[in-house]
Amino acid sequence: MKANVMDNLIKMVDLITELTTAHYSQEQLASFVDCPVYREAEEGRTVFLEDRPSCLREHCLCDSTFIVKTNKQGMLVAKGKPKRLEEALDCFIDAGEYLGFLYDYENLKVENHKLKKELKLMINETNEAVMVVNHEGKIQSASLPSCRIFQETESSMINKSICLWSEVLWEELEKVEYSGNIQVKIHDHDVHVIVQTVIEGGIKDRYVLYLQVKDRSQAPIHTNYSFSNIIGTSLAVERTKRLAERVAPSETTILLRGESGTGKEVFAQSIHSASRRSDQPFIAINCAAIPEALLESELFGYDSGAFTGANQKGKLGKFEVAKGGTIFLDEVGDMPLSLQAKLLRLLQERKFERVGGTMSIDVDVRIIAATHQDLDVLVQQGKFRQDLFFRLNVIQLVIPSLRDRIDDLPLLTESFLKEYSLRQGGRSKHFTEEAWLLLQQYDWPGNIRELKNVIAHATQIEVGDQLTVDSLPVALRKGYKNVVVTPTHASEKERLLELLDQYGRHTAAKKQIAYELNMSLPTLYRRLKKHGIK
Ligand SMILES: Nc1ncnc2c1ncn2[C@@H]1O[C@H](COP(=O)(O)OP(=O)(O)OP(=O)(O)O)[C@@H](O)[C@H]1O
Predict the structure, then answer these.
(1) pLDDT tops 60 at residue 352
(2) Rounded to two decimals, what is the model's pTM?
(3) If you take atom 23 of ligand 1, which residue's CA is the nearest one?
(4) Residue 49 pLDDT > 50, yes or no?
(5) 269 lines ligand 1 (CB under 6 A)
(6) Could you give the percent of the chain with pLDDT greater than 70?
(7) Which long-range contacts (CB under 8 A, 24 or more apart) does 225-230 make?
(8) Ligand 1 center to 485 CA (angstroms)
C-alpha cells in the first residue's frame, strides 16, 4: 500500500512537470466550441491524441503531442506519451486519496507555483522519507521522516548540497538515468534509496528520492517489546499488565513508577506497540543522562543560529522526531525546573518553540513519563512542579520490583539463559541447585536488569553447560550459606515480616504494605494467611 503510494508520488512529480507546459483559459476554450475533439473531451472523457488536431493548432502555445481533458472550467492540456499520462492521472487521484485530500483535477488550474506548493505539502505531510534533489545536488524539499534520517531540520537541509551528508549518495545519483536503487550509509544507518529522475527538456532536472532505513533496529521508530513478550505471570505483574493494556489505546499521558531496571521502558514500548501510533516513532530520552545545558535542545531542537559559534545548522528535537508517535521521558524527576515549565506549556497548549526559534510548532506526540523517584516528595521539596506532576500523573502504573514478583524468577531466568546461550552459539545452560538457591535468596536491588547481567556474566565465564556458584558475581555469593530451603516461599514471607516490622500491623500499615507490594489489600491478607503470619 505504502510502496504504491510512493510510486504514485514519484510518478506525480513527473506528471506535474508535464502539466505545467500548457493550459487553456476559459476565453481560449470559447474558440474551440466547434472542434469535435474538444466536444468529445467536454463530455468528460479524456482524449488522447497522437497528433495535434488542426482546431488546436492555431491556439497552441507549444508544438508537441497532446492529451486533452476538459470541463466547464477549462481544458487541461499536457505534454507527454499518452499512455504514461493516463497512468499518471490515476496515480494522482490514488495518492491524493491516500494522503487525505483529493485533488480535483476536473477543476485543476494548472499553474506552476500552485502545483509545486501542493507537492511540497504532500511531501511535508507524508509519513514516508521522501526528498527532492535538483540537478546540482541541492535539496529542494524533504519530508519530516527524511529529515529524521539525516538528523536535521527541514530548514537546515533546504538549498544545501546533499554532499554535506553523503558524497557517495550524490556520486551515485548522478549515475542514475531514469530510475535506480542506491545503498548508502547515513549516520551509521544502512539506507536504501529508490531514485526517480525527472527529465525536463530532455535533460535531468531533478531527482525524487525515497529513503528506507534497512537496519530497523537502528532506526528511531523501532520498538522491541509488546505486551505478549513481557515475561511474568506473578499477580503483581499481571495486574500492571492488565491496566497498561486497558489504557494503551487511548491517548492518555501515563506516568510509570518503579525502581531502576524493573522494566519501565519495556512497559512504555509495549503501550506504544498496542496504540494507534504503533507504526510511528517511539523515542526514548533519559532526562538524567543528559547534561542540563543540553537537555532543552535535545528535547525541543534548535534553529540555525541559535548558538553563536556553535554548529550553525538547526537540529530537530526529540518532540519533533517523535511526531505522530510516542515520546518516553525517562527519569522525568531529574528534569530541571526551567525545563519543567516548558514541558508544562507543551502539555497544556500542545505547542512549543525550538531553542532560538520564534515559530510555534504543533505537537502530535503521546507522552509516557517514568521515574524511580517519589514525585510527591519532590513536589514537597519544591524540586518538581505540582502542576506538571498533575498533568503527567493522569494514569499511574507501578512496575513491581523483582523482589515483589519473585515468583517470576524461574521464568525470567529460563528465558535469559536461553537468550544468552543461543547468542553464544551453544546449548541452553542451566544453574546448579546451589547457584539457583542463591539467585532466589538475593534481593535484586537492580531488578531485572541486574538479573540479565548476572546471567550474561555467568554464561560467558562458564564453559560447560552448568553454571555454578563460582560463576555468580561476588555480591550474590556473599549471601551463600549452602542451606536447603524453599526459597520463593521463604523470601516472600521474609519480605512480608520485614515490612510488618517496619510499618506495623494495623490496617493503615497493611494498606501501605499492599501499596508497596503493588497488590490489593485482600491479596495481602491472603498472602499473610498463606505464610501463617498473624
Ligand atoms: N518483563 C520483562 N521481560 C523481559 N525482559 C525484561 C522485562 N522487564 C525488563 N526486562 C529487561 O530488563 C532490562 C531493564 O528494563 P528497562 O530498561 O525497561 O527498565 P527501566 O525500569 O526502564 O530501568 P531504568 O529506570 O534504569 O531506566 C532490559 O534489558 C529489559 O529488556
Answers:
(1) yes
(2) 0.57
(3) 261
(4) no
(5) no
(6) 68
(7) 225/266, 225/269, 225/270, 225/273, 226/269, 226/270, 226/273, 226/274, 227/270, 227/273, 227/274, 230/263, 230/266, 230/267, 230/270
(8) 29
Q: Whose CA is nearest to atom 24 of ligand 1?
A: 260
Per the structure, the complete domain to which residue 336 belongs is given by: 227-398
Question: For 446-479, what is each residue's pLDDT tens digit?
Answer: 899 889 988 988 888 887 888 988 888 877 876 5
Q: How far is the CA of 226 from the centre of ligand 1 (A)?
A: 13
Identify the helix (H) or strand (E) that includes residue 134. Answer: strand 129-134
Q: What is the layout of strands, in order, in the sheet containing 326-330? A: 282-286, 326-330, 366-371, 254-257, 395-398
Query: Is ligand 1 within 6 A of the CB of residue 126?
Result: no
Of all protein residues, whose CA lies closest to atom 7 belonging to ligand 1? 263
Residue 450 Cβ < 6 Å to ligand 1: no
Mean per-residue pLDDT, 308-322: 71
Instruction: For residue 516, count other CB atoms closer than 10 A to its CB.
Output: 17
pLDDT above 90: percentage of residues in the chain: 28
Q: Are residues 509 and 363 in the same domain?
A: no
9 and 81 part of one domain: yes
Alpha carbon of 115 to ligand 1 centroid (Å): 49
The answer to whether position 424 is within a domain reads: yes
400 lines ligand 1 (CB under 6 A): no
SS3 content of the chain, % helix, strand, coil (to 5): 45, 20, 35
Residue 221 falls inside a structural domain: no
Could you report the predicted ipTM of this complex, rounded to two decimals? 0.97
Cβ of residue 271 lying under 6 Å from some atom of ligand 1: no
**What's the pLDDT tens digit per position in 406-460?**
999 999 999 999 888 877 777 778 899 999 999 998 889 889 988 998 898 888 8
Distance 266 CA to ligand 1 centre (A): 6
| Ligand 1 geometric centre to CA of 74 (Å) | 63
Q: Does residue 23 sit in the same domain as residue 71?
A: yes
Q: How far is the CA of 320 from the centre of ligand 1 (A)?
A: 26
pLDDT tens profile 78-118:
444 434 444 444 444 443 333 322 333 333 333 344 545 55
Whether residues 208 and 246 share a domain: the answer is: no
